[in-house]
Amino acid sequence: MLYSEQKHFDEIIAYLEKDNNVFIVGCDGCAQSSGSGGPKQVEEMKQKLAAAGKNVTGTKVVGFLCSKALVKSGLRGKVDQVQAADAVLVLTCGDGIQAVAASINKPVYPGCNTINLGGSRAEWEGSERCFECGQCLLWHTGGICPLTACTKSLVSGACGGAKNGKCEISQDRDCGWELIYNRLKERGLLSRLNDMMKPLDHRKLMVRPEMMSTPRFALENFPKPPPPPPAADASKEVKAK
């Protein structure tokens, strides 16, 4: 699972400075377990945004936001509310935020940061991946993570080495920053690329010392059992006898 924490409310309000109408999406999976984006946190965020002068057009908590199929089916009954929103605020891990951004044609903002727990970075179907950077950048890149979509994990733009839309390092992969450019262009958000990105705080990429004593860390880093020995060849056993 992925562990997430809500961003500071001042940061969220800064994203939404020009957006008066907001739809909120939460996750009943990992975010619910993390206490960052379950039903309770979605309702609390609704109240905070209303107090800040924002109009919340609606809310929805989906079982697992990392599944685009569940996102689309979960929002099917909320189409009018989503369409009435200027932007969508998503309270979950980076993978779920990306899945929502890929599923709806709206500006999508991260309401949470995903915290590194070590071990494997979750396993799921689909192309979205979260780097657990602790400083989610998806508001800037149209909901496509530059740390995982770009093989070089560049956060300040393309390297210039792509050819025909493919990465110069892994030519079977699309250039992550070309994907970001096309997404922003499609949604009329190319001006975001004019904003200067702050350098990554690499301390946030590390596992926090206080997390190492938690059950979550133990589960993520529990040693995997060795693979079973190969099955004996019955024909060889017969010959040996």
Short description:
This protein is an alpha/beta fold and 241 residues long. It folds into two domains: 1-140 and 197-212, Rossmann fold; 144-195, no CATH class.
Structural notes for this entry:
There is one protein chain. The longest helix is centred in the first third of the chain and has 13 residues, at 39-51. This protein is 32% helix and 13% strand. It starts with a strand and ends with a helix. The model has no long low-confidence stretch (mean pLDDT 87). The protein has two domains: 1-140 and 197-212, Rossmann fold (3-Layer(aba) Sandwich), CATH 3.40.50; 144-195, no CATH class. It has helices at residues 9-15, 30-34, 39-51, 68-75, 79-83, 94-103, 146-149, 176-186, 215-220, 234-240, and strands spanning 3-6, 21-27, 55-62, 87-91, 108-110, 112-115. The chain has a four-stranded parallel beta sheet, with helices on both faces. It is globular. The chain is α/β, with parallel strands linked by helices.
Oligomer state equals: single chain
Strand content: 5-15%
Instruction: Report the mean per-residue pLDDT as an integer.
Output: 87
| Helix segment tally | 10
Instruction: Characterize the largest beta sheet: strand count, sense, and whether it forms a barrel.
Output: 4 strands, parallel
How does the SSE layout of this entry go?
Blueprint (H helix, E strand, L loop, with lengths): L2 E4 L2 H7 L5 E7 L2 H5 L4 H13 L3 E8 L5 H8 L3 H5 L3 E5 L2 H10 L4 E3 L1 E4 L30 H4 L26 H11 L28 H6 L13 H7 L1
Parallel strand pairs: 2-3, 2-4, 4-5
Antiparallel strand pairs: 1-6
